[in-house]
Specification:
5-stranded parallel sheet, globular
């Protein structure tokens, strides 16, 4: 199984991937990116078999993350999928992408998936913002 965790925190607390990542022998590849240095170091200690990238994740700089992913997961051409089009394409090699960045999730997901498709995407959704706060949905 293969995983990329963007906004990984400490790897345990409130992380839906923890149960899948805790057993190192069940993980073929895993990368976690966390922008908070303290949390990133905790993640490295909690899940030492997961490659940790201690850097803020930004859509414009997504290649800083994707360049650390083995070539077998990278797709140079991922088709636009329509409900009406019948297309055949290879199944993505990456099993799970999780994104929880608390602000730019959609933009980062779009940039990441354009380069590295995933079978499953896990994203945080919060649709309960009270006025005058606003959010952007894609």
């Amino acid at each position: 199984r293969s995983f990329v965790n963007l906004g990984a925190g400490d790897g345990i607390l409130d992380d839906p991937l923890y149960q899948l990542l805790k057993n190192a022998s069940a993980v073929s590849f895993a990368l976690a990116a966390e922008g908070t240095q303290r949390e990133c170091l905790k993640h490295s200690a909690n899940l030492p078999h997961v490659h940790a990238v201690c850097a803020k994740v930004k859509a414009a700089e997504i290649t800083e993350i994707t360049d650390k992913i083995p070539q077998q997961f990278i797709s140079t051409q991922w088709p636009e999928i329509s409900l009406h089009a019948k297309r055949t394409f290879d199944e993505p090699a990456l099993d799970v992408l999780k994104v929880d960045l608390d602000s730019i999730d959609c933009d980062v997901m779009q940039a990441f998936l354009a380069r590295v498709p995933a079978k499953f995407v896990v994203a945080e959704v919060n649709d309960g913002f009270p006025p005058p706060l606003q959010m952007s949905m894609h």
